[in-house]
Amino acid sequence: MSNDSKEPVGVSVEERSDNLANERVGMSIEGGGASLPFGLHSPREHAPVHEQMTVAALILSDYKLDSSVTFITLRDNPTKRPDINDFVRGVIWNDDPECELFNNESGNNLSYGWGADWVKKYALGYLLGKTNQPELIRRSHFGDLQWLHAMASTLGEEPTDTKQKVLRWMETMYKLAIGTINGGTPLQETWMTQWFNDPNNYTTVGELLTHRHKGLADIQHRALGSCFHVIQDSYAVGHTRREPLNLGDRVPGAGIKYKPGVADRWGPILNFHTYVGQGHDHGTFDHSEDGSVETLDIGNLAAWNSLVGCRDGLDACIELANHWHRKTAWDEVSVWLDTVVFKLSDKATRADNTVT
Question: How many Å apart are CA 9 and CA 98, to the nearest integer?
Fold first, then answer.
């Protein structure tokens, strides 16, 4: 399979540079803190939506994490709860599969760096279209690994193909999370070797999630966090188009905006989007500039109702956390993921690069 997403016809490097300054990453992560030129945005400028949703799922699930914990408390006291940090590292991994947002040091598994190398790889990969096997950051955002974000790898990709890749990743990560497989499993013994092959940085499933960073890592927690990321992104408007279930609760004439206190609810997937060629609205629906996320009462489900895509994504993460906590067999979890979370509509179409 080709590693290249289809570029929009007639778009020059200069035009792509202008577009990049307006684009955002993920259903957003906070990331590092680099100050960058040319209008490029450091991930640290983004709201920690993925991180806060992940901690909320752990609080509201049978795991029953202390409700006083938030991503902010973890970030500001990174050595206090290293066991919880790795759930966060896992949900960030899909956006940062080369671990460039973090310092490579022992004793602190949530030590943020400046993120400049992450932005360089992200920006140059997009602007120049440079592709080779080790470039996981570029490939996960613009290339053949976009399924890590519940997105298609290319324009026109069949929805069944995208879903198959999503479910295979979910299977491997979930089995890793419950201990059915272990982090020492060589990648060459798994299906993933066709996608991940960089012996200089990893040779095992566990090393793939750590990039051989020095700090101790709870691989099972990271694996569950990565599963959370895919689920959360699958409800983001810039990633998929789903059948709306409560159109009557929208504010008339206001687009995808719901009445106060009412959560948006979504059904089967109509379309997996692909990132290349999308406009800046992708970031709008990822809530990348929503400052309220940091102060949100994350343990209150109703507090998430005002953020489009978040309530359904959080509900699904809570259910997955419950399965993980009980060590439910993959055969049962896979049915739920197949028929509920990633269910395809009978009207599903091939991938496009629209936003809504």
Answer: 30
- Cα–Cα distance list, 305 to 227, 313, 341, 353 (Å): 22, 11, 18, 26
Three-state DSSP state, 102: strand
Query: What amino acid occupies position 67?
Result: S
d(CA 145, CA 157): 13
Place of tokens 């013994």: 189
Taking only the tens place, the pLDDT of each residue in 188-228 is: 999 999 999 999 999 999 999 999 999 889 999 999 999 99
**DSSP conformation class of 219:** H
pLDDT value of residue 21:
30
**Cβ neighbours around 189 below 10 Å, total:** 11
pTM of the model: 0.87
Three-class SS of residue 15?
helix
Q: 284-301 burial string, b = 16+ CB within 10 Å, else e? A: bbbbbebeebbebebbee
Axis-axis angle for helices 159-178, 310-326 (nearest 10) = 40
Residues 117-133 as b or e (16 or more Cβ within 10 Å = b): ebbebbbebbeebebee
Q: Model confidence over 25-56: pLDDT tens digits?
A: 336 788 654 444 444 444 456 899 999 999 99
Cα separation, 100 vs 116, in Å, equals: 8
* CB-count burial class (<10 Å; 0-12, 13-18, 19+) for 276: buried
Q: SS3 of 173, please?
A: helix
Q: Residues of 8-28 as b/e, b for ≥16 C-beta within 10 angstroms?
A: eeeeeeeebeebbeebbbbbb
Compute the distance between CA of residue 7 and CA of residue 24 in angstroms, rounded to an integer. Answer: 18
Closest CA to 174 of 325, 340, 344: 325
Tokens at 294, concatenated: 């940091």
Task: Count Cβ atoms within 10 A of the Cβ of residue 281 and give its class: 0-12 exposed, 13-18 middle, 19 or more buried.
Answer: middle
